[in-house]
Amino acid sequence: MGLQEQGTFSCPECNGSFSSMEALLEHRRTVHKSSYHVMCEECGKVFRSTSGYRNHQKIRHSSDSNVPFCKICGKKFSSSSRLFEHRKKHSDQTYYACQKCGKSFKHARSVKRHDIVCKQ
């Protein structure tokens, strides 16, 4: 989305070219009525809030060793609780079971989705 190439930023919607990220964002807000306000200059991802952008920078582009990360796959997380939930993906254990049919899931949200369609 609007990655910087040779000093220009491209609009992903109309391929317009802009000399700065700010000019591209202003173009997207006024011409395309975009609600995105901040763009990462390193990868082009856009955000609706500066806090989302700062979180992205911390996780994806920081060399900060204090950022929680998975020692199995290397993925970085914004909090230890998100890392804890992620670690369950690497485990063979299941944590949540459907009360109707007994099928097991690693995430509570998965068993909730399953419960809607479970016929037993």
TrEMBL record:
Localisation per UniProt entry: Nucleus
GO molecular function, one term: zinc ion binding
UniProt entry keywords in alphabetical sequence: Metal-binding, Nucleus, Repeat, Zinc, Zinc-finger
Signal peptide: none
Boundaries of every C2H2-type domain copy: 9-37, 38-66, 68-95, 96-114
Main location: nucleus
Coiled coil (residue ranges): none
Annotated Gene Ontology cellular component terms: nucleus
UniProt name for this protein: C2H2-type domain-containing protein
Gene source species: Magallana gigas
